[in-house]
What does this fold into?
Amino acid sequence: LEHVSNQATLDLYKKRRDILVDGLNEIGWKVRKPVASLYVWARVPKGLTSADFAKMLLQDAGVLVIPGNGYGQYGEGYVRMSLTVAGDKDGERVAEAVRRIRENVKVDWKS
It folds into this structure.
């Protein structure tokens, strides 16, 4: 498969990652950029379980994330966000998720 290039796909995932992580960090959430992953893991705000926070994001912002406790005891305290977003051509759906979180989820991001 030497003649096949997946650079456009890699560039799209990188763009989505940057929109998501930069946007979440701008609202006060401290999230690290993954180097080689289709997922972003983020610590939940203090005082919330991963399941409670995932439910809050879905109910308050309409944003689906996976609670980390589904991945075992070390996943608790985190949520997982996917960069594989159906119908997202240029990061617009990821940007919309960040906007919804910013406008609808009221938590202390700094704790």
Summary: Residues 7-26 form the longest helix (20 residues). The chain has three helices and three strands.
